[in-house]
Every structure is written in C-alpha cells, then in structure tokens.
Amino acid sequence: MDNDYFSIDAILAENQKIQCKFKQRIPEMGHLGGGSERDILPLSKRQIPIWLAYIIVYSDWADFDIPQPFSNKVRNALRAEPRSVRLSNLVGAGAGWYVLGKTIMDMLGDEQGVEMSEMLITTFKGRLVDVIDQAQHFAVLGSVGGGGGVDSAPQMFREGLDTTERELFVLAQESARRMKKWYEEGSGGAKRVL
Amino acid sequence: MSLPQSLRTSVTPPELELIASQQLIEIIPLIAIEKTAFISGAFGPLQPPRKAQIPLWMAINLKLKKKCHIVAPEWLSVEFLQSRLDEEINEPGFSKLPFRYAEVSKLLLDVQVTFAPDDIQSTDKIRYLLKDLREARQAKSREGLDQINRGELSLSNLCSMEINEIRPFFVHAMGILTHLHRDASAEDQP
Q1: Nearest residue, CB atoms, A117 vs list B13, B113, B182
Q2: How far apart are CA B159 and CA B153, in angstroms?
Q3: What are the pLDDT digits (tens) for B46-70?
Q4: Which end of chain B, N or C, is less packed with Cβ atoms under 10 Å?
C-alpha cells in the first residue's frame, strides 16, 4: 500500500467501507459503527473504512469479509462474460472497481490474494479489447455522433466502464483522433512556399 | 510539466512527419545549385540532369517551385505495395515495410496531388493500397492486445506511426496490469 500513498484513486478506494467482525472487546469505540453502544463487543460486526480497517486487521483485532463488489455472484458473472458486467455500478461514486480490488488484495493472505489478482487481471484483459475498439470507433464519430438510440449495447458497456477503463478509453480515443486528423489534412501549411 | 496531458504520452503525427522529412530521397534537379550548408548538413551540388540525394523537406520545397522531379522510392509502387498487402492478409505477422512509410507516402502523395502529377504513377491506387495496408495492420495489432501482459509485448515490424498510435494506451494498460498483479511468494503481511 505504500507506493499508492499519494494516488488519488487509492485514497478514494480506501474510503470504502468493509464489513469487519471484531475478535476482541474494544472499549469506548462503539461510535465507529454508528451504533449507540459504548464498547465494541467481541464477534460484533461493523462497517469500517478500509484505511482504518487495515490497521485493525493487521493488529489482529478483527477479521473482514470480502465486500460485495467482489462477492461470488460477481465473480461468476465475470467468469461467464466479463463485458456484460457494469463495473461502475458495483462500487460507489469516486472509487474504481479495480483500485478497490487492489486495495483489498493487498490486505488478503496469499491464497485469496492470488485468486483475487487473477480475477482482476482476467476481467481487465477481457474488457480491454472492447474498450479500445469503442474508443477508436468514437474517434471517428467525433463529438457529433454519440451512439444514438440504436446502439444500446455498446452504449451500456461504455456507461458501465470503471474509472481506470475510462482513462484508457480517453487515451485511445485521443490518439485515434490525432491520427485521423493528420491523415485527412492536406499537404499542410508548411509547404506553401510559392 | 506544462504540456497538456494528451501530449505527454506520445509524439504527435505532425512531429513524426517532420522527423521523417529528414530522410534522403533521390531527385532529378531542374536547376543548378552549388553545395550549400544547412543546419543538418551540406547538400548539393545539384547539377541537372544528374540525379542527387537530398532530404525530403528540401525535395518537396523544390518540387513546389517546380525546380525538380522527385524519383519515387522503390517501395512506393503499386506492385510492391500489392505484394505486401497480400502478405499482410495471408500471414499472421506484420510484413516488413519501411519504418516511416506512412509519413513519407503522405508527403509525397500530397505533393503529387497538389502540384505535379507526373512523378508517381497511379496515385489513387497507391492511396487505396496504403489504406488497406493500414487497416489490415490495425486489425492485427488489435489481436496483439490479447497477448498483453505486464512484462513485455513484442510486435515486430510495426512502423513509426502505428507504434505512436498504440503507445499511450498500451503502456497505460501494462501499468495497470502490473498494479493488479500479485506474486504468490511476495507477502506484505508479517
């Protein structure tokens, strides 16, 4: 987690809450979960933001469950068809699914971590080709196009893109647009020396 | 850095065109020029009707003033490009093309169209062939996306424009994959 210290994406991802089950009794900290108790009792569950949960889990005061965006249901859906899942809906505003996944993966033990890493990577690679395809297609349409009502499947995919995928989309679209512009402009102004 | 974000990731096509213009090309001069020193080197003397090798930018300049005829490079012909196109379609790898074929061909073809349509034959056909080549190679590089991993990606025989086009998102995607990777042996918990 150290090398992400200044990364905005990581900070936003760490703001997400995960479910922690406390193993010990912690006095005077009941307000963390928003409840009315004074103490946190053993085996009680609270939703704790990741930046706090990291230390708590590290010091072995609680265990945490893998949060909903990475549940088995989501995993199965991704395994079936990575492009049909709307990643932007799974996580709240601001954080990205991939960044959240990485943050959680850093907290997991070896076996679960590798499994999670494979899931993230497979999903990413599965969606990548579509992201780039759409970006290049959109460079052609320019700002006038916009897909229209007929194109609802690609449009839904575009809306379901995660923040990291959106950055890639913009990069690809920019370079495609530049290329197109260059190919279509004539012999350029620098050549007029008559 | 004060460059806008989009320019930080790669070179722009006009810049590549400028770099490509420094390549030497053969011309038949129509006027005589003695050996002149330019910033990039000394060229000349130009003695018609002997052929001479000068940089592309100079050749285009002279051509615009109708002071030379450009001898087309041997790869800028219908036969050569057609055979490369067939190779491209039938074989899985990328066919070998001059590294800056896109820029040089655009420069030469544009000068033909605007000014003296006499030096390169069948410019339209050549344009179509070049476009087809470009699209075939783009389709292949899209397949290359599937093999992307966080280490290295080898796509041989790609040309300068194509590399420039895919560089930003390829590099970014590889960075993301590096981020997402988790070594089975590395462990950041005690």
Answers
A1: B182
A2: 15
A3: 888 888 888 999 888 888 888 888 8
A4: C
A188 contacts B110? CB cut-off 8 A: yes
The two tokens of residue A86 are 């709307």
**When comparing pLDDT for B108 and A194, which is higher?**
B108
CB nearest B188 (choices: A106, A121, A129): A106
Q: B90 to chain A, minimum CA–CA distance in Å?
A: 23
By C-alpha distance, which of B81, B117, B99, B74 is closest to B23?
Answer: B99
Across the interface, do A124 and B65 touch by the CB < 8 Å criterion? no
Helix (H) or strand (E) holding B144, with range, is helix B123-144
B145 pLDDT band, cuts 50/70/90, is confident
CA of B86 vs chain A CAs: smallest distance (Å) = 23
ipTM computed for the complex: 0.80
| pLDDT of the residue at A111 | 82
Nearest by CB to residue B64, choosing from A58, A174, A194, is A194
Burial A59-93 (b: 16+ CB within 10 A, else e): eebbebebbebbeeebbeebeeebeebebbebbee
User: Contact A182/B13, CB-based, under 8 Å?
Assistant: yes
Number of neighbouring beta carbons within 10 Å of residue A57: 19
- Cα A107–chain centre separation: 16
Residues in chain A with CB shorter than 8 Å from the CB of B21 are: none
- Within an 8 Å CB–CB cutoff, is residue A78 touching chain B? no
Q: Give the pTM.
A: 0.79
What's the whole-number mean pLDDT along residues A113-127?
85
Residues B117-123, mean pLDDT to the nearest whole number: 64
Give A194's pLDDT tier (boundaries 50, 70, 90).
very low
Asked if A102 has any chain B CB less than 8 Å from its own CB, the reply is: yes
pLDDT in tens, B74-101: 888 888 888 988 888 888 888 888 888 8
Question: What is the chain A residue with the closest CA to B149?
Answer: A125
Q: Sign of the C-alpha dihedral, residues A159, B167, B14, A181?
A: negative
